[in-house]
Amino acid sequence: MTKIAIIGSGTMGRGIAYVAALNGFSVALNDIHSESLKQAENYIKEELIKSEERGYISKDDIERSMNNLTFSLDMNACVEDSELVIEAVLEIMDMKINVFKELDRLCPDYTILATNTSTMSPTEIGAQTSRPDKVIAMHFFNPVHKMKLIEIVKGLDTSKETMEFVKNIGKKMGKETVEVNEFPGFITSRMNCLIGNEAMNMLMEGVASAEDIDKSIKLGLNHPMGPLALADLVGLDTRLRNMEYLHQTLGEKYRPCPLLTKYVKAGKLGVKSGSGFFNYSL
Q: Which of 74, 87, 99, 210 has most Cβ atoms within 10 angstroms of its Cβ?
C-alpha cells in the first residue's frame, strides 16, 4: 500500500485521513497535541459507523480502515517511508514553512510534500526545501468525505512527475481533480471569498438578514449552501486569514468585511465555537 503521512489532525487533517484510509492507503496521522489526535480518532470511528449505518460501507470496511490508520505525536515515525506527506496545519505561512523545513529534513528523498492550503503559494513553501520539484498543493474541501474535488496546484518548480503522482492519488481516493497554475487563491477560494465577503457586507449594511441572504443564494443561484453558513463551517478565523492573504496579494477588492473582523475578535468563529453568523449552540 502507498503510505501517506498527514501533519495536523484538525478538521482537514482528520478528514483527509478518513478518506485515505477508507480507500486503502496506509495512513499515519501526526499532531503535536495528544488530545487532538484522540479527537481525530474518535471522529473517524464515528464517521465510519455512520457510513455503515447508512449503507455506504460494510462492517469489514470499518475494521479495514481503522487498521490502515496510526496516530502518533512522533513526526519522524509518521513520515518514515511515506511516499506522500500532506500538511494540514493552520493557514499561517510561517507555520507551514517551519513544518516543511522539518519534513524536508526527516523525509526520504523520494517523498512528495503537499500542502492543503486553500490560498497560499506552494512555490514559496517549496523554495524553503531542498526538493521544490516535489512540493505541491492539494486543496481538499470540507467535509472531505463528501466534497468531490481536489484542487492540485503546481508551483514554479513542481515537476510533471509530481503532478501526475498526486493526481493519481486523488483518483484513488475517489476524487475529481483540477490542475491549477499557482496564483493566490487558486480557483475556488478566489471566487468563494468574494461571494462570502459580499454577503457579509450586505448583512452589515442591513440589506437583509443572514437567513434571507443565504436563502437567496441557495434558491436563486442554486448553491448547495449559503455563503454565510459556509463561512461558519470553514471557521471565521480561517476565512479572515484567507481574506487578509488575498487582500495583501490581490488587492483592494479582497479587503475583509469589518463585520468578519469584529466577529473573530468577539470569538464568534462559526460552527466550532457554537456561534457565528448563525447559532449552533445546543
A: 87
The tens digit of pLDDT for each residue in 3-57 reads 999 999 999 999 999 999 999 999 999 999 999 999 999 999 999 999 999 999 9
* pLDDT above 70 for 143: yes
Q: Catalogue the E-assigned strands of 31-127.
A: 69-72, 84-87, 112-115
| DSSP-assigned letter for residue 80 | T
Give the residue extent of every domain in the chain. Answer: 3-181, 187-272
**What are the binding residues?**
8-13, 31, 91, 96, 118, 142, 272
Which residue do the cell numbers 459580499 mark? Answer: 198
* Domain covering 187-272 assigned CATH 1.10.472.20 in the classification: no
Going by the annotation, the residues of the binding site for NAD(+) are: 8-13, 31, 91, 96, 118, 142, 272
Burial class from Cβ neighbours inside 10 Å (0-12, 13-18, 19+) for residue 264 reads buried
Q: pLDDT tens digits for 220-262?
A: 999 999 999 999 998 999 999 999 999 999 999 999 999 999 9
d(CA 90, CA 208): 32
Radius of gyration from C-alpha coordinates of the chain: 19
Tens-place pLDDT, residues 156-180: 999 999 999 999 999 999 999 999 9
For the domain 3-181, what is the CATH code? 3.40.50.720
